[in-house]
Amino acid sequence: MSARGSWPGVLGLGPRPLRLLLLLPLVAGRWGPAGAGGAPGGLAEPSLVAKHEDSLFKDLFQDYERWVRPVEHLNDKIKIKFGLALSQLVDVDEKNQLMTTNVWLKQEWTDVKLRWRPGDYGGIKVIRVPSDSLWTPDIVLFDNADGRFEGTSTKAVVRYDGKVTWTPPANYKSSCTIDVTFFPFDVQNCSMKFGSWTYDGSQVDIILEDQDVDKRDFFDNGEWEIVSATGSRGNRTDSACWYPYITYSFVIKRLPLFYTLFLIIPCIGLSFLTVLVFYLPSNEGEKICLCTSVLVSLTVFLLVIEEIIPSSSKVIPLIGEYLVFTMIFVTLSIMVTVFAINIHHRSSSTHDAMAPWVRKIFLHKLPKVLCMRSHTDRSLKIGNS
Question: For position 29, what pLDDT does the model report?
Answer without folding.
Answer: 45
